[in-house]
Every structure is written in C-alpha cells, then in structure tokens.
Amino acid sequence: MFSWWVKAYFFVIQIPVKLFVKSKPIPTDPITELELDPNRPILYVLPYNSNIDLMVVRSLCLRYDLPDPLAGIKIDGKLVPGFIYIDKGPGIFASKRQQNKAIEILRDYISAHQQNPQLDIQLLPVSVMFGRSPDKEGKKKPSLQVLGATFKLYKIIVSGRDCYTHFSRTVSFKNIQVDNQQDLSFLAHKLARVARIHFTKQRTASIGPKLPDRQEMLNELLNNIGLAKAIQEEAKSKDISLEKAKKNALTMLNEIAANFSFRMLRVTDFVLTWAWHRLYQGLKITNTEPVRELAKNGHEIVYIPCHRSHMDYLLLSYVLYRQGLVPPHIAAGINLNFWPAGPIFRRLGAFFIRRSFKGNKLYTAVFREYLAELFIRGYAVEYFIEGGRSRTGRLLDPKTGMLMMTIQTLLRGDPRPITVVPVYIGYEHVLEVATYANELRGAKKQKESLWRTLNAFFKLKKLGFGYVNFGQPIPLNQFLNNHIPEWREAIDPTGTQRPNWLTPTTNLLATQIMERINASAAINAMNLCCSILLAADQRALTKVRLLENINYLLKLLKNIPYSDLITIPDQTAEQLFEHAKEMGKFVITTDEVGEIVGLTTVQAVLMTYYRNNIQHLLIIPAIVARIIIKHNRISLDEVIHQVKLLYPLIKSELFLYQNEEQLTTYVQQIIHSYAELNLISYSADKLVLNYLKMSGMQLIASSSRDTLQRYAIAFSLLQKDPTISRSSLEKEARLIAERLSVLHGINAPEFFDKDVFSILVSSLREQGYLDDKQGTNLQKIAIMNDILKPLITARVMQTIEEINPVIQ
User: Fold this and answer.
1) Are 11 and 153 contained in the same domain?
2) What are the tens digits of pLDDT across the range 593-606?
3) Cis peptide before 134 (omega within 30 of 0)
C-alpha cells in the first residue's frame, strides 16, 4: 500500500518516538474497558495530520495486539488505508489534501458496507496529547493540536513522558444508517464533522478551562452582588468602614482560594507515581468511562468521595489526571494549611475551608461566592461530604453545607449542567488507622505536621492495593426535576435565596450520595479476611476454615451482588489469603495439623476498620443467618417479616439503598444462596439449619452481632422508660455499650461511638419509636424487643438487663 520511501519515512519517525515517548493509554486498559475486539478490522481516526502521532498510536496498538494501522484493511481483495486524518496538518505548509483524502476513504468504507452486508469494520477515534497544560486567561498560546512539525519534534523531546493516547468507543460502519437518496460524500462529511466535535470535546475534558489570574479573580469577586451586600452588612454590624470590611473579605478570599499550577501538578504526578509504587502494589480503578462522557459533554462535575485518609486528597486527583481528566479543585480542612504542605496543596487545586461557618455571615458569603465562581468558570470540584475522615471505617453522617451551596449555585441560572459523582475510596491499609483507634478510645487528635507525615511515610511498606470506584452519577437538574418540579421558580442570580424545599431536598440528595458511594464499594483480601477472623471465637481460625469461609463469602457476594458497581476479586480464596498474609497483620502459628491464623488483641481493634468498609454488604445476609440459627426452623415469610422490621434502622446507619420490594427479593436471593451452599435446607414452608455446616453459618451471622446488640440496648432502655428523652437515651445507651464492651471483650471502637448512637436515636425518632414529646409507641417497641432478644446471646442480654437499672 505504501511506497518504499513512505515506509522509510515512517521508519525514521519511529526512532525519536521509541527514544523519547512513553505514552499512557486512556483508559488504562482500552481492550477491556472499551470492549474492543482485536479480531475485527479497525479504521483508526486521528484528529489531524501528524505522522508522529500515528507512530505513537501504532506502538500502543502493537502492545495491545490491536490491528496495525499501517497494515491496511482488505475489502473485496483490495487493500485500503487503516487510518485517516480528519483535519489538515499543522504548520504553514499544511494543505487540505489529507482532509479531502479522509472524506474519500470514509465514503469508500460506507459504500463498501452498503454493497456487502457481511462487512463489519470498526471506526475507532484515537488522539495523542503531548502535555496537558491549560491556557491562561489573557495569554495567547498555540493549541496543542495544531503545532508545527518542528515544534512537535521539540514537544516529544520535552514532553514525551507526559504523553497520553485517548482511545474512544468504536462505531461500526454497519450501524451507520444510509438513506438511498442520501449523497455518500455528504454523509462522509457529516461523519468527519462529528469526529472533529468529538476530538474538541475530548481535549477540553482533558485540559479544562483557562486558568485565571488569581488576584484579579479575587478582586472581581469582591464586586459580586451577593458578596458586596454581605460586605455592607459586615461594616454596619461591626461599625467599621466599608473599606475595612472589604479588606477583611479579601483576606478571607486569600485564605480560601486555590492557586493552581500545572507545573506543580506534573511534579506531584512524578512523585506520587514513585510513592504509590513504594507504598502500594497497585491501584484498581473502575467505572471511569461515564465520568469521561460527562466531562466531554460539558458537565460541571462535583466529585464527592468517602473520606478514609489524608491520602484521599492526592489519590483522587492523581487517578483523574491519569485517566485523562482535569484534576478538581478540592475543599480541604484549614488544618492542612501548614508549611510546606499548605502551599503545595494550594497549587494542586486545594482551597481551604474552616471547620465551622457558624455566626460568621461574611465568611459564609465569601466562601459561597468563591465556590460559585469555580462552578461558573467550569472547574471540577471535589469535597468530602462526611466533613472529616471516618475513624471507624463506616460512612459518617453527611454534612450538607457545601452540598446546599452547590444547589444554590444551580439556582443562579448557570446553563452548565451540574452532576454529582459519588466516589468510593478504599485501601487495604489506611495510614492513620492506629491513630483513629486511639482517638475513638478518647485520645486527643494530633495536629498535622510535616515531620509526623514524613516519619510515618518512610516506615510504611507492603500496603496492598488502593481502590477508586466511581459510583452512579447524579445529574442535579434531573434530581430536582424529579423531586421539586417547580425548582426553576426559585432561580436567583445572587445565589442567596433559600427556598423552603432547599434543606429537606439537600438532605435527601446527601442520603442518595452516601447510598451510591456504598453501592460502589470494593471487596478485597484484607476486608474479607478481617470480617471472618473478627467473627471467630478468640479471633483465630485454622487456615482451612478461614479459606472455607472466604469461599462462602465470595460465592454469596457473587450470587447476590449488592449492586452492579460493587467490585469483587477474581482470585481464589488461597490467593486472597496469601496476599493479605504478606501485609503482616496476622499471627500465624503452625502445629502438626496445619496453620492457625489469628489476630492479637491490639491488631483486632485496628482490623475492625477494614471490616467496617464492607459491613453494609454483609449485614443483611448476617441478620438472615442469625435469625435462622436462633430459630432453627422458620418460614421464609417470617424471616422476611423480621428483616423488614429491622431494616429501617440498618438502612439509616449503613446507608443501604433497597426499598421494600428490592429488600424482599434480596432476602429471597440470600436464602437461595444459603441453600446452594448447603448451609440450610429449603422447602416451601420451612428453612432448616444444616448442623454439619453450622460453624460457617455462625461466622456469617456474627457480622450482625454488634449492630443487633446496640439495638437491644436502645430498645431495652425504651421499654423500661417510655418517657426517656433523646439526649438521655443516647447518653445511657452509650454508657451501657461501653460497659458491655469491657465485660464481654467487644474490640470494636465504633460499638459505643457517639456518632453511631446519634444516628440510631435519630432513626428511632423517624420510625416512630421515640418522638419529640417524650412519648413512645409501646406496642412497636414490644414487637421489636420480641424480635431482638432471641438474636442476642442470653449472657449478653442478661448483662444489658443488669446494667440498665444501675444506670437509671
């Protein structure tokens, strides 16, 4: 297809590409993530005439066993080109010849598919980017995709290690609808135009909006209507000059505002790549394609991850950058604004936020205007809805302040759609886990510092894998349309209006976000092993029993997946155990019979954190197992009835998403899985425990032990004193739980955590067990007590009853 001199030309171009370029594919596994079929012919579509880009694409195609773009495609015995350039090449000597040639080739492909219905050639858009530095406002800079040939050679030398190749989803020529009356040239032109638009959107999604002059932007913000009004009120309320109030507002803006630097991002990318390889065995990332689509379609994206560790700030930005997306501006606690971390974080897009806005109207207005400005300018934003890091491994009750401000930004009438993307972040080792356990036991929170951070970092190794799973996005416009159809009537350009529906709707949205974070959780070797060992007597099992129970959980989770976005490991139980063992958390002893795997008392407390990461996935199967064990013979309808009564409390505590109908189906699936695993026998009228495999069922059931004991404490107090106040119920329940943990060796710090009991008491009020008038529904409480008492061991229940009168 090519003459000898063209082949020689390509050979020469390959030399600098091999020497200087190390391109990263986006997505990282294009074959799997984009469902590409290497066995089908592919026509590669590049955005503009660049043979260097073609050689970069070719090197990746050969690496992934995709068809060679230079090999061409045979159609009816004729060899046709396997690649096209949609636009003319860069530089002053560029002509439209390649562009016209691309139209001809597209027309020939469309015509060939019309004539031969058996043909199925895939059109694959692919683009190469050397460097992703955004433009700056007020400065003209040549587009990265229209560089001259000489400058392009310079770019591959300078930015060859900062090269990204974007693969897109294929389009089959077979599926292109052709009207018999339609001119093929017109259709080819239309196809080329769509491709050009696609590449433009892709570039915008990867590079982002122009960067402003920071100080100029802050000065402009001071003149915004909403902030100007707040400044006037500040001057009046504090009896200071308008100039002084304005200066205070500017000081606050400088304290808050990010100072993004692409150069710092590149340096950090290099450092973090080294750090992740030193600390972790790898990162596992899923469901990024919907996020890329949102970015390409011009959505304002708000990333809302769970908050496990200080590493979260860096990890999500690193992952997004490596996935070809613009790193977000991140809301960070003011406690992280210490030297030198603060200035570094600020240049990586962090904007700092005080822990509380209460009573400071000017600060509230300043922050609201800054956040709105980020949205208006098109920057992606990230904030942690839990407010702080989870000390227990569970999701915390959401703080809705920033989420409410996000909705208020939408009410300004900005035409850009805003979409919330929940993100699950998980680790097989959390750097601060020992500190968390101490804090839950009453230790004072230690102040962040550079020395402590570095000291901890260099002591760490073999931390397993990190996980970033993107949840199902929530388009805010669509959410409001579904729940508040008249929301557009509240549009206010100042963004200060608070319609009556704002607070309850924000709370509803926050709950949905938390549910979707949990619905995209990652199951891994560490949280599986910890869940089983912590459920065992004396926190130890033989290796054989441990592997058997890992298999039970894997089969259970695969048979009845909590959601489509949950990630479950593909490895065998043996492989998962060996991986977890390498991290040095277990005590392994060996005798003549075999290995025994256990946890020390200290380590058991720390391991509850990882168990709690997936507690919401195991809680309903565990409760079903416990009901069957305690009743021995019970009907399916009775199991469903008891689970439904307990479910509202569990749903509030662990952010479960199922409605009543989904819950019924879920419980039925659990029962069928237990029968398939031969843990129970299942007939039309009765479920009967298989005593030969009772130990396996008990280990599954033990995951619900602490939760049900907390409920038993609360309902025991309610039954003895129906007029108890919410605050007294919370305080006394916590005290009983704390004593119970000492008397019965419960090594879970969250067992008596005040936040957990606060959520429980709020849920009791919502479900009608407790009301603001200090009245209770005695019949409902009695029914719940009748369900709970058989599920708690007699020894623990007796302790609860004994402690209860002492406290009162």
Assistant:
1) yes
2) 889 999 998 898 89
3) no
Tokens of 712: 């038993």
| Nearest alpha-carbon partner for 83 in 111, 114, 50 | 50
pLDDT tens sequence across 550-572: 999 999 999 998 999 999 999 99
Can you give the pLDDT at residue 144?
45
Same domain, 46 and 92: yes
CB atoms within 10 A of CB 56: 27
Query: Which single residue is written with the structure tokens 């890091």?
Result: 389
For residue 145, pLDDT over 50 is answered with: no
Q: What separation in angstroms does the CA of 214 have from each of 244, 577, 765?
A: 21, 51, 48
| Residue 763: CB atoms within 10 Å | 19
Q: Which residue has the tokens 């061991």?
A: 793
Q: Which of 698, 719, 748 is the last residue of a domain?
A: 698
User: What's the token pair of residue 219?
Assistant: 């000065």
Confidence band of 179 (pLDDT split at 50, 70, 90):
low
Question: What gap in Å lies between CA 64 and CA 53, rounded to an integer?
Answer: 17
Task: Spell out the residues 6+ positions from residue 308 whose beta carbon is closer than 8 angstroms to its own.
Answer: 389, 390, 393, 425, 426, 427, 430
Is it the case that residue 3 has pLDDT exceeding 70?
A: no
Provide the number of structural domains found in the chain.
4
286/350 Cα distance (integer angstroms): 24
Residue 217 lies in a domain: no
- Going from the C-alpha of 713 to that of each of 272, 535, 722, 732, the distances in angstroms are 47, 20, 14, 9
Backbone angles phi, psi at 73, to 5 degrees: -130, 135
**Cβ atoms < 10 Å from Cβ of 420:** 23
Specify whether the CB–CB gap between 291 and 470 falls below 8 A. yes
Q: Which residues pair with 129 in a beta bridge?
A: 164
Q: Which amino acid is at 49?
A: N
Distance in angstroms (rounded) separating the CA atoms of residues 257 and 278: 32
pLDDT digits (tens, 9 = 90+) for 620-664: 999 999 999 998 889 999 999 999 999 999 999 999 999 999 999
Query: Which residue matches tokens 């986006």?
Result: 26
Residues 673, 559 contacting (CB under 8 angstroms): yes
Examine the domain organization and report whether 770 and 690 are in the same domain: no
Going by pLDDT thresholds of 50, 70 and 90, the confidence category of residue 778 is confident
In a 3-state reduction of DSSP, which class is residue 301? strand
Residue 216 lies in a domain: no
Task: Report which DSSP code applies to 441.
Answer: T
Can you tell me the distance from the alpha carbon of 537 to that of 498, in angstroms, rounded to the nearest whole number?
Answer: 54
Residues 142 and 38 in one domain: yes
The full length of the chain comes to: 808
Of the pLDDT bands very low, low, confident and very high (cuts 50, 70, 90), residue 123 is very high
Is residue 245 domain-resident?
Answer: no
Q: Kindly tell me if the per-residue pLDDT of 384 is higher than 90.
A: yes
Nearest alpha-carbon partner for 226 in 495, 492, 498: 495
Residue range(s) defining the domain that contains residue 282: 262-518
Q: Quick one: 688 and 732 in the same domain?
A: no
Least Cα distance to 325 among 349, 308, 309, 351 occurs for: 349
Q: Are residues 529 and 505 both part of a single domain?
A: no
**Helix and strand totals (H; E) in the chain:** 32, 22
Same-domain pairing of 476 and 556: no
Burial readout 499-520 (b: 16 or more C-beta within 10 A, e: otherwise): bebbeebbeebbbbbbbbbbbb
Alpha helices in 208-261 (DSSP H): 214-221, 225-238, 242-256
Instruction: Note the pLDDT tens digit of each residue in 678-726.
Output: 999 988 778 999 988 899 999 999 999 999 999 999 999 998 888 888 8
Residue 552 tokens, joined: 């039970």
- Pick the last residue of a domain from 642, 673, 698: 698
| 435 and 483 housed in the same domain | yes
> Is 605 within the bounds of a domain?
yes
Q: What value does the mean pLDDT take over residues 393-419? A: 91
Cα angle at 376 between 375 and 379, to 5 degrees? 45
Query: 236 in helix, strand or coil?
Result: helix
For residue 159, what pLDDT is reported?
A: 84
